[in-house]
Amino acid sequence: MPFDQFIIFFLFLLTGFLCKKYGVFTDSAVNGINTFVVNIAFPCLILERTLALDMNHSIFINFLLALFITLGVFVVFGFYARFVCRGKAYPDEDKPVSELAVFFPNNGFIGLPVAQLFYGGVGLLYMVGCNIALNTTCFTYGLTRLRRGTDTETVPFGKRVLKLLLFVIHPKICAAVLGIILCYNHISLPAFADGFLTTVGAVATPMAMISVGTLLAGTFGLRSFKKRVVMEPALNKILLIPVISAAIVWFLPIDPLVKTIIVVSNTMPIATMVPILSEQYGKNKGLAGETLVVSTIFSMATIPLFIWALKMLQTGGF
């Protein structure tokens, strides 16, 4: 794996950090960039990269394996997070937030550009499968945990199902499904459409990583690093969860790239959905936000480290 890719990874982050630190990007500008990347640039990238694949039955099956194995891994992580947080001296109302912070990875906004940068179009497609698993878990198990101790009638069941469906039909997921259908049936897009997808999709990875860099310029404060309720879930997320996921999937008789993507997916920092849903359900949004930022800072070192370690495992380089 070329060292240049690691340099590119950090230069994008540094650019975002400096732009936010020195006022080049305002909060509203960052929000606009995020919306563009998630709803337009990523779908274009996913569709363009999927159409460029030599799509076959094996790739399609591997995509489904990435999705369903990740769902199974999340079941294990759910029990692990409950076990880790149960005996801690955290306030009871904060434990659901800490549990989700332990194992919900940001395998969308950060995971997709990392997969594209290091593993190409096939890796990107498999990461989409992992992201579908995350969205499904967020709006089933995640909401169940966050609603603990709240009025069970706050959000009707039908509305929760609707939210899940809205994530299932998210543009990036629709792009992956459409790309698989078109590519599998050898249907090509007109040259102008392919050119548009290529041009817009090309900005997805740099813009996403620059946006992540702006997060690191936030004013969360050094005190966050002294809080057990912040540090313990964050360190579990970026250090132990990847190791556990590797122990679960590494000896499965599946494509090595699928294994790698599932593990890399779980090296990501805490998902942005944790503070968003925490606020919606009256939980400690500040705690969720602090844990997200701390895990993101540490993950800038641990993500490349795990990617390198996985490469060494596959090639027998240790």
Textual characterization of the structure:
- The structure is a single chain.
- Helix 1 crosses helix 9 (204-215) and helix 3 (57-86) packs across helix 10.
- The protein is globular.
- It contains 13 helices and no strands.
- The chain has one domain (3-310): Up-down Bundle (Na+/H+ antiporter like fold), CATH 1.20.1530.
- The model has no long low-confidence stretch (mean pLDDT 87).
- With 318 residues, it is mainly α.
- It has helices spanning 3-21, 27-51, 57-86, 95-103, 111-146, 157-168, 171-184, 191-201, 204-215, 228-249, 256-265, 273-280, 285-315.
Write the layout of secondary structure elements.
Layout: H1 3-21, H2 27-51, H3 57-86, H4 95-103, H5 111-146, H6 157-168, H7 171-184, H8 191-201, H9 204-215, H10 228-249, H11 256-265, H12 273-280, H13 285-315
Helix pairs in contact: 1-9, 2-5, 2-7, 2-8, 2-9, 3-4, 3-5, 3-10, 3-11, 4-10, 5-6, 5-9, 5-11, 10-11, 10-13, 12-13
